[in-house]
Write a structure and sequence with these properties.
The protein has about 90 residues and is an all-beta fold. It has strands spanning about 20-25, 45-55, 70-75, 80-85.
């Protein structure tokens, strides 16, 4: 009988990984400059779903952080907050 050689499988992180985190953010209210005498705000600072993401700082790639005052990575399983990024901290953990 011939012995078969086993080959090691290479797997890169994130390749077959299930999405288990989601990015949420609080959008800043913005002002309307249509009427100079009256300033009106169009949005309330409420939570907004942004996208599926990884569980680390790579989640901020492609996001315009200037329009958010706070960003959170939340777990898909129980909805608990994994990491918080705030504008005051300079978008660091």
């Amino acid at each position: 009988m011939e012995k078969k050689k086993k080959k090691a499988k290479l797997s890169f992180t994130g390749e077959n990984e299930e999405i288990s985190h989601h990015l949420w953010g609080i959008r800043k209210p913005y002002k309307s400059n249509d009427c100079k005498a009256v300033v009106s705000f169009f949005t309330k600072p409420t939570w907004q779903y942004i996208k599926e993401c990884s569980g680390d700082r790579r989640a901020l790639r492609g996001i315009d952080v200037r329009i958010y005052s706070q960003l959170e990575i939340r777990s898909n399983e129980d909805g608990k907050t994994i990491k918080v990024f705030t504008e005051d901290d300079g978008w660091t953990v």
